[in-house]
UniProtKB/TrEMBL annotation:
Gene Ontology MF, one: delta(3,5)-delta(2,4)-dienoyl-CoA isomerase activity
Keyword line: Acetylation, Fatty acid metabolism, Isomerase, Lipid metabolism, Peroxisome, Virulence
GO BP annotations listed: fatty acid beta-oxidation
Family classification: Belongs to the enoyl-CoA hydratase/isomerase family.
Acetylation recorded as keyword: yes
Pathway assignment: Mycotoxin biosynthesis; Lipid metabolism; fatty acid beta-oxidation
Main localization (coarse): other
Protein name as it appears in the record: Delta-delta-dienoyl-CoA isomeras-like protein
Subcellular localization, as worded in the UniProt entry: Peroxisome
Amino acid sequence: MAASAYAYDYFNVSFPAEYVAHVEINRPEKLNAFIEIMWLNLSAIFTRLSHDASVRAIIISGAGDRAFSAGLDVQAASKTLTPAPDQDPARFATFFRRHTLEFQACITAIEKCEKPVICILHALSYGLAIDLSLACDIRLATRSSALCVKEVDIGLAADVGTLSRLPHAVANASWVKDVCLTARVFGADEAQRVGFVSGVLEGKAEAVGEALKLARLIASKSPVATMGTKEILNYSRDRPVADGLQYAAVWNAAMIQTQDVKDAMLSGLQKRKPTFSKL
């Protein structure tokens, strides 16, 4: 797939390796802070990549060296947070609920994407940056990362994903409440210590290199297998073990009927690298 087919405002989409896509948030002059068109485009990009047979793994990062994303563009968002003078509370609440659900769905598009997504958190990573990264499958950070669940500092509870996903991503409820209630900035080493990120790299270039290495490795596997693994992990995260086991059995009852399984087994016996068809 040519990169020109993914022409969306405020994003660069490239294909640095076979079956690997790189999505770059591209508003560096505003620290990659999000305005509404950006989360709508983000959703469109990941929905499209999900069904792109030429893609098996995805990297997401931010343009420039100053920020992955400073979060929501508060100046632009303030207009949405203010009801019209003649708008009664119920009608404004209805509008705001619909708006928030649409916003949530745009970020959830990353989680729903069939392809594994690797997030590179670098420099400023505030508010919406945390929401977005938690919808990804693997998170890496750089030494310069300054991470923050910022929403309480602007007078509201985070409502786009962090408060729902962070407790599942980090097995330390005290730490989760600490960072969410204080809005304090924490660094990459602390994020790795609690399990929020799986790796810390010295700089952005090194992090992109490591992400590309991981993405290439994932892309070398059967796309049926990686899609199923992501699906079952996400399904099982929110449910009892018994439900996850049942879902995995039903999923593989269909998905095991593929040439990929035979090719993978034969390659192991024949000590060769397998190749797999596109989805």
